[in-house]
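sorry for the late reply, my laptop died twice this morning and i had to redo everyting from scratch. anyway the thing you sent over, i finally got around to it. pasting the sequence first so we're on the same page, its 328 residues, then the predicted structure underneath. double check i copied it right bc i was rushing
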Amino acid sequence: MNKTKADKVNVYAYLTPDPLDEDSTVETEWMEWIPGFNAQEDEDGSHPFFRDENIALLKAIELTTVSHFRKSLRNLSVLLTNHLFDHIQIAIDHLGIVCRDTSVASYDYGNSQPEMGKYVMHASRSLVSAYIKAGHDLTKLSPYTAVTWEHEIIHLLDHWEVVKSCVYKSSALAINKFTYYLLSYRNEGLADLFYLLNGRYHEVNSIEAAKTAFDSAVQRVQHKMLEKDMTDDEWNQEIFSEMDCYEAGPWLMLDLLRSFEGCWHERLIDEALLQITKREPLSHLKTLYIIRIALRVKTEDFLDYIMPLVPKYKQTVHAELLDQLVLN
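ok and here's the structure:
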């Protein structure tokens, strides 16, 4: 069998912090979530981590994570052209230090170096747990969990636009943080296209429903901004940690693609919309073709599209701030 570019990429996973590190501060009870983990000391009094069966178990977790990731990489192999790959490392965050409760996995754009072909991913304990419970029966994975790595790999392929949008997040100005919030509908919407184009969605089931959900969400964000000047922590806790862009975002991206590049793709997208609203998956090649087009959408393209949809609320005291928020 001919190897694809995805098969040739060096992918490796490791638990972090490493319980087998001689300076590790990981406690035994922190690893008892792993089915089959033996928390008893070995006969010679060695730490439980160094029992042969536990070492084999931890290695199996790393290999299983790589296996699932590589499957997703193969799924997106057509999109890897013109991207440099040296290696991809997957840090399994089994203590929840990076991957919080709301994060199953993440692409670490800050520590990745696409110019060197070096990329960093994070996997959560909940994701690894799902892999362990599913075993060889992948139907036991939820449909969304099954495409977790497709989502993160699309972020990887979208690296520079992710970086551009995150510049807004790091700003001290509320208007820039709000802009980052809006761009989350592009970034997450693009990454979740693989899920939607496979005929899967939840409550938001059309472009119009997505626009309604977007309008309601932005109202809530704007009102929070008007109530007080939020610190970075408050932005992270009240806004960024509860982003509601995953459901509406993919539909909004498809709406944008209808008029993108001179409406060249309108017929393709209309046909795709007709199919997925019936919960019928597109062919794999057509799915990747649409995602390839979507990867050409820049942050400025998305802001041009989304700003007319931003609700404008006039209150006498806050009129000046609201005028800034809608970027008029």
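The two ends are 56 Å apart (CA to CA).
thats about all i looked at so far, will dig more tmrw
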